[in-house]
Amino acid sequence: MINIDLRSDTVTKPTKEMLKAMYEAELGDDDLDGDPTTIKLQEMASSLIGKEESLLVSSGSMGNLVSALSQVKPNETMIIGNKSHMSWSTEQGNGHPTYGQIDLNFLNETNGLFDLNDINNSLNSKSKQVKLVCIENTHNADNGIPIRYEYIKDLSDICNKSNSNLHIDGARIFNAASALNISVDKLVDKAQSVSFCLSKGLACPIGSIISGSKEFIYEARKQRKIIGGVMRQTGIISAAGIVALKTMPDRMIEDHITAKNLANGLAQIKGININPENVHTNIVFFSTNNMDIDELQQKLDSNGIRCFNLNGRIRMVTHYEINLENIDTALNIISKIMN
Ligand SMILES: Cc1ncc(COP(=O)(O)O)c(C=O)c1O
Question: What are the sequence ranges of the domains in the chain?
Fold first, then answer.
């Protein structure tokens, strides 16, 4: 029975080493005294990311929300990309104000980037002060593109002039750093806050980390508590995180190779639209000429190839449970369906 799950890197299950570490983890009440294993994970994350302090949160969405609430007060303005996951979060529930009273300014993104003139205009023309500009690296909806350091630096210079902070939704920041061949701390050094997911390509079952200054994390702890994000014997989660930070970042490149192979193979199949040049990390999007995307996705599903239809395109995401043999199998099945 074929089961090749390319829906997301979130489907990854913890490795044996993670499960062992979770079983053996030293535990404490994270809210009362601090959980010793979580303290260790947070220290490790801070040193890897190059920020003063870090905090474990339950998910990427919570990481972004807590980061926003910690830096933007009611009626102050935050800029987010129109295709970003944060924009999706804020629009969930038919306008439900997940982000409270924050004034949200959605800016267009092309290949994961704001036009710097647009940013300049927004920062200067708004009557309310923009407190936070958020970018996503890698940019999920824009073909998983990694955002280059030089761009982040230019953006941060503009933000600094207007006293606005920069937040990086780095759910897949280790993919970005690997694809750009840059250390992760350098890649995020211009941002005041960073969020990254343990539960995506890093393969942990649960958890994200936010990092920034001591003052930011002090405020983030309060915000996490208010929104119900305190967990107790978090060492169970953190033990997997520690293994992930030791073992996973160096292998991100393997997921990019499988994704590139998938993209190159798809480009050979008649009726599929994809430019493999656009695939830089572990996310592959494609469309079709004649076949309905829903129909294709359902046919793939019934043949054991799992993927998502996102806004009229198929998205496939590679991860540590997908090897080159799986890619060949998937390509054979896609080819048969398309012919
Ligand atoms: C770029 C990005 N940020 C944040 C999230 C949210 O992560 P979570 O599902 O852990 O809340 C996702 C989830 O796919 C994402 O792709």
Answer: 4-10+251-338, 13-247
